[in-house]
Amino acid sequence: MNVLRNSVRLIGNLGDDPKVRKLDSGKTVANFSIATNEIYRDQNGTKQSETTWHRLVAWGKQADIVENYVKKGSEVAIEGKLTNRSYDNKNGEKQYVTEVLVNSILLLDKHKA
C-alpha cells in the first residue's frame, strides 16, 4: 500500500486576492491564504464556530490556475503537503512559517450562467 505520510486536504475560502509573481527563472509562484471553519457545540450545547487560517504556496501550473481563476472569497479544495521554513525579519529575528505546498487545486465556486 502506498501511504502519503505528509498529506493535507483543505476546503476553504480565500481571505484576500492571491499574490502571484514570475521569477527570473520564468516559474510562476502564487501565495494565498484560506480560512477553514469548524462549527460545533460546546459542553453546554451552545453552537460555536472556529476559523483557522492556512498559508498556501502554489507553483507552475497550479499557480497559473490560481492567477487566472481564484480571487478573494473563492471557495477551493486543495491537496498538498506541509512545509516549514524560516527567515530573518527586518530586526534580524528568526521567524518560522508553516505553509501548505499545493499539489492540486479544485475550484468549488458555483459558476453563474
Automatic annotation (TrEMBL):
Protein keywords: DNA-binding
Annotated GO biological process: DNA replication
Record-level Gene Ontology MF annotations: single-stranded DNA binding
GO cellular component, one term: nucleoid
Matching PROSITE patterns: SSB
Known partners and oligomeric status: Homotetramer.
NCBIfam families the record matches: ssb
Protein known as: Single-stranded DNA-binding protein
Organism for this UniProt entry: Maribellus comscasis
